[in-house]
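agent> step 3/5: call structure_predict on target 'ERP44 protein' (Aegotheles bennettii).
agent> reason: downstream docking stage needs a structural representation; sequence fetched in step 2, passing through unchanged.
tool.input:
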Amino acid sequence: VSWLFNPTRSEITSLDSGNIDDILNNADVALVNFYADWCRFSQMLHPIFEEASNVIKEEYPDKNQVVFARVDCDQHSDIAQRYRISKYPTLKLFRNGMMMKREYRGQRSVTAIADYIRQQKSNPIREVQDLEEISSLDRSRRHIIGYFEQKDSDNYRTFERVANILHDDCVFLSAFGAISKAERFSGDNVIYKPPGENAPDMVYLGSLTNFDLIYAWTQDKCVPLVREITFENGEELTEEGLPFLILFHMKDDLESLEKFQQEVARQLISEKGTINFLHADCDKFRHPLLHIQKTPADCPVIAIDSFRHMYVFPDFSDLSVPGKLKQFVLDLHSGKLHREFHHGPDPTDVAPGQQIQDLASSPPESSFQKLAPSEHRYTLLREKDEL
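tool.output (status=ok):
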């Protein structure tokens, strides 16, 4: 069969536990093919991936500029688990060793993959030629602006590394020399312009050569604590492998969203990394609401989707009760929500003399389970077609 994998055709770097960190950390951009030999689609992709590598290597001959690599997930299940690989083949992009949130989902063709890499190698920072440009920015977007004395500097190189990783989440701009002088009253300067015409700028006060510090600061500004889930990013969010805490609200109900954001920040900041905080348009996501026997008329509604079941926060008006939302999330982690759906309230939660009811019904099934990692390929959300 002509498309069977021939390992001698191209210099694709094979990754294992001994070399993966060194190779990825030293690569400006790395595209990694996570595959399984028994998978027909993996076999079909091999020659395409190799040819795309050959094309790109002619344009970027420096071995650290672009790396095409592969991982045999059967032989290296520890690596597959580390990067939450659950379908084959999966193409993941890395920058300086850091895996990007969005995997490659384009056409599996030489041209498409090569074009994708060229796009990833394009400069993520727009250079400002006149500070007047700053006053006409689209204030619906998040902006990170760096003012530097010169481009050839450690400060700018660190800024560039951060922009390479987070340019999908923020717009990055820079100004140099005489143009930036007015904004460099105390040396090179990086600021964040949040969305909103009247939102005040925030200044980065740490070391501009400390990548970890400036990356953490920029990520905090560019990636909101509460993100919107849409039909376009639902699969991507699911791939992060964390359960969802979702506020379903009408699009024009910004008051409920603001309350939810405030309480998540107040009660759940310590849970960041264990659960994804999201909000969704009730009207667009009618189908998930049906899973919990709700309609847009019931919004705002808060629910947890564990990818196994959905659990409803009892009363939105209790949102601001100190600790109430946090306990809801803690009850998910402890298994209490699942247990009580099947067996009624825990004995410790039942008043003296009150009989425990054995619930025969199961909790509503997850609305996003079909997006969650499994041994099969992902399918796309179908709610738009079902409305």
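agent> step 4/5: record observation. DSSP finds 13 helices and 15 strands in the chain.
agent> proceeding.
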